[in-house]
Amino acid sequence: MSTLELLDTARARLAAGGAAREALGELVVPRRILGVARAPRVERRGSAWHLGALLLTDDAVLATGEVVRARQEARRGYTAESQRQRSELAFAARRGGFAEGETVHVGWRVLSADTPDAPLALRDGIPSIRWSAAGALMPLDAYLAERVSLLLEPPAGA
């Protein structure tokens, strides 16, 4: 099977099973007004099924970026700058109109499903995926089967 056929099969299973989608967002930094900076916000750009390293929409496949839960701003102390940045992104999602606690994917990028594009690859003519930065390639059909099953029938307590 080709990469496109595997992705279409996964879409059909997810749609038929009524799998939940998660929001896609894009960080927008508004223009200054009279020299005054306005707070950035995350604007809604659609929804997708989250399949680990991939996000699957009705007509595209995306590489995941950052995943945050929208929340109201609150004064907090941070032990790491990366923690502060993630928190700012969560605040920006809430300012952009996402519901409190809603999962939002930011920083995703569109992949080309018909030509190899990281994390998708062809290994010996077999569509494959690198499911983590340090992970090895694995066949895409097995990866999608596992991820779709987990999304349709999550383990108890998940």
Number of domains: 1
Report the average pLDDT across residues. 90
C-alpha geometry: elongated
- What is the strand arrangement across the widest sheet? 5-6-1-2-3-4-7
Count of DSSP strands? 10
Low-confidence segments: none
As a percent range, the share of strand residues is: 25-35%
User: Helix segment count?
Assistant: 3
Strand-and-helix sequence, N→C? HEEEEEHEEEEEH
Protein name: Glutaminase
Please describe the topology of this protein.
Blueprint: H1 3-17, E1 22-28, E2 41-51, E3 54-56, E4 61-63, E5 66-69, H2 81-95, E6 103-106, E7 109-111, E8 120-123, E9 126-130, E10 137-139, H3 140-152
Parallel strand pairs: 1-6
Antiparallel strand pairs: 1-2, 2-3, 3-4, 4-7, 5-6, 8-9, 9-10
Helix pairs in contact: 1-3
Looking at this protein, list some descriptive labels.
158 residues, seven-stranded mixed sheet, three-stranded antiparallel sheet, 3 helices, 30% strand, alpha+beta
Give a written overview of the molecule:
The chain has 158 residues and is α+β, with helices and mostly antiparallel strands. It contains three helices and ten strands; from the N terminus they run αβββββαβββββα. It has one domain. 27% of the residues lie in helices and 30% in strands. β3 and β4 form a beta hairpin. α1 packs parallel to α3. It is elongated, with a radius of gyration of 18 Å. The protein starts with a helix and ends in a 6-residue tail after the last helix. The model has no long low-confidence stretch (mean pLDDT 90). It comes from Microbacterium jejuense. This is Glutaminase.
